[in-house]
Amino acid sequence: MSFIKELLIKRFLPFLKWLPELKEGKVLRADFLAGLTVALVLIPQSMAYAQLAGLPPYYGLYAAFLPPMVAALFGSSRQLATGPVAVVSLMTAAALEPLATAGSETFIAYAILLSFIVGLFQLSLGLLRMGILVNFLSHPVVVGFTNAAAIIIVTSQLNKIFGVEVEKMDHHYQTVWNTITAALDHTHWPTFFMAVLAFSIMMGLRRYRPRWPNVLIAVVVTTGLAWGLDYQKLHWITNEQVVSESVKQNIEKQLRLRQHLVTLDQEITEAQEIYKDMIVQFGAYDLSALQARFIVENLKLQRDAMKNDIKQLFKQLQAKTLYFVPEPNSEVTYPLADKQVRHQAGSVYLTNEMNPSESTLTVWKVKQLDAQGNLLLHSGGAVVGTVPSGLPSFQWPHFDLGVILQLISAAIVISLIGFMEAISIAKAMAERTRQRLDANQELIGQGLANIAGSLFQSYPTSGSFSRSAVNIGAGAVTGFSAVITSIVVVMTLWWFTPLLYNLPQATLAAVIMIAVVSLINVKAVEHAWHANKHDGSVAIITFVLTLVFAPHLDLGILAGVALSLGLFLYRRMEPRVVFLQRNDSSGELENLGQLKEANKENDVGILRFEGSLYFASVNYFEEKVQELLVKLPKMRYLVVEAVSINEVDASGEEMLRAVVSSLKQAGVEVLFNRVKAPIKDMLGRTGFVAWHGEEKFFRHPIALYDYITAQQSQGRVDS
């Protein structure tokens, strides 16, 4: 009974092990302060990472609400801080952008579904105790990918730092180039200065006041400034105020398509009712029911196409640059003006504070188009905007088999990368706290966190380096600190969301940049190169391919995995082989590869094979035997130094039998030294030992050389 209880606690309710510790006031107080400290970092960070994932910033708060608590309750690590992280956020955006427009309802639905799939995959691996699959992501692959991802993340925020808008291209480096080009001519200086201020506050506090919450202070200061200075500068205008005919046509098309969309939704509802009636009357597979279903699906396809057309038209509208005409009836044009705006009554549309002579210097952008065709313009910096108050509602992800199949590969990669990030942090903290860590249990915790989060509109999450460091540095003892963090996020969603309205997006971009710069680790690549040129090459190639393939990050990491597996197989197929000969005068072994010339009169050759003898390496072994015969033409004794051979399969045994037979015919006797017991047992079961002779297997070099000396003194070779 005690065994079952122990298994239940360890596997399904691991938090019961640390829950009694909260009775100590010191532990409870430490966890409370640590949880509060992490929350002060998590709230602004989560909104920044949601923006990186292509989601409205408040979805970061949804991802910070439940996953931290669930991961702490059901995971193995006590101090791991789970929630939105940079790399997983970037990979989420990369996986979904080919399927939907960033920030759209469809995009959000896919992100929630992706979280569910990621969680399900991680949970399955944990329950099946298959955490070993993470080993397929070798350290060089992760190092190369992480460095590339950090650069991609930093450069993806440049448009928000400079306040410019550019269309995303097929390749990330093209988008970055367009952003830099646009910034040279059209930098929005208030946005840029807000970003510089945020950078200065965070970097300054890190250096001079490291214990202060630098991210939170930067957010509070810049949000306060944005509110006090009317940083966003919003203005509504009517459709009649627009001069440009092409823009008017764009607006009219959007309004017309929106009206058609309403009609189409009604037709879909009616068609679905007819389809249901057909199923009730004739069955789901009756021709009439199938025809009705075809009509429903066809109407849905039309609706999706129409929604996409509306989005594309609005994107075209947002790309326009607006200037106010200083005089109502003038025909003044400006080089960068795609359209001009004036008041219908003839007066110039300006704020009271704006000098008419300066009106042409103010750049305006379209933020919103309402149902009547009125435009909401903004000439200031972008802010977070309205954040819905209250907790996200419970709802199942929208399960669509076609979409699931498209997301599977990305979900697997995100699952493994996210878990590797989490487990590496957890291991580092476990060494510090002397805590025993269970990787499979951590997989269960991370999986449940993503599944539970997806039921409350969260996107994929993982363990965070920075917040975990803050958590353990603040004195967290148990997973209860994560519960406190979640409670603080809940309080924020209930009561403090109006305060986030004026938070500049440039500040969030600065938060992201500051957070991910630490992921750039050139020394790790150098270390891999010095340790092994193959590993260094894998890291560098993964780094380059990830940058080239971006935003398709999965291609970069899959290429790295394929390359590392290929090199692994190559090394298994052609392991290191050392040729040795015995110095007649000193009796010491000499590496033939380090000698200018081998002693061709030597009749003893030694081959040390440093790998397994299996089907893929048998030909290589034979080639090396032939090579040694060429180096030592008078060789009469071949010693196979087998101390480094860990495995021999059926193909290897057959090859050894063939080599021994052919060499025996050539007058060369094969001797085996220091064969490992399991391998010798296998050779005994196949009859190889009895066939070749037990006396030709030696446990120690002294006995081996005594045997050879005795044979040489007799002047013969046993047949």
UniProtKB/TrEMBL annotation:
<feature type="transmembrane region" description="Helical">
    <location>
        <begin position="403"/>
        <end position="426"/>
    </location>
</feature>
<dbReference type="InterPro" id="IPR036513">
    <property type="entry name" value="STAS_dom_sf"/>
</dbReference>
<dbReference type="Pfam" id="PF00916">
    <property type="entry name" value="Sulfate_transp"/>
</dbReference>
<dbReference type="Pfam" id="PF01740">
    <property type="entry name" value="STAS"/>
</dbReference>
<dbReference type="InterPro" id="IPR011547">
    <property type="entry name" value="SLC26A/SulP_dom"/>
</dbReference>
<dbReference type="InterPro" id="IPR001902">
    <property type="entry name" value="SLC26A/SulP_fam"/>
</dbReference>
<feature type="transmembrane region" description="Helical">
    <location>
        <begin position="472"/>
        <end position="497"/>
    </location>
</feature>
<feature type="transmembrane region" description="Helical">
    <location>
        <begin position="212"/>
        <end position="229"/>
    </location>
</feature>
<feature type="domain" description="STAS">
    <location>
        <begin position="594"/>
        <end position="688"/>
    </location>
</feature>
<feature type="transmembrane region" description="Helical">
    <location>
        <begin position="140"/>
        <end position="158"/>
    </location>
</feature>
<dbReference type="InterPro" id="IPR002645">
    <property type="entry name" value="STAS_dom"/>
</dbReference>
<keyword id="KW-0812">Transmembrane</keyword>
<dbReference type="GO" id="GO:0055085">
    <property type="term" value="P:transmembrane transport"/>
</dbReference>
<feature type="transmembrane region" description="Helical">
    <location>
        <begin position="82"/>
        <end position="101"/>
    </location>
</feature>
<feature type="transmembrane region" description="Helical">
    <location>
        <begin position="187"/>
        <end position="205"/>
    </location>
</feature>
<feature type="transmembrane region" description="Helical">
    <location>
        <begin position="534"/>
        <end position="550"/>
    </location>
</feature>
<dbReference type="GO" id="GO:0016020">
    <property type="term" value="C:membrane"/>
</dbReference>
<feature type="transmembrane region" description="Helical">
    <location>
        <begin position="58"/>
        <end position="75"/>
    </location>
</feature>
<protein>
    <recommendedName>
        <fullName>STAS domain-containing protein</fullName>
    </recommendedName>
</protein>
<feature type="transmembrane region" description="Helical">
    <location>
        <begin position="107"/>
        <end position="128"/>
    </location>
</feature>
<feature type="transmembrane region" description="Helical">
    <location>
        <begin position="503"/>
        <end position="522"/>
    </location>
</feature>
<keyword id="KW-0472">Membrane</keyword>
<keyword id="KW-1133">Transmembrane helix</keyword>
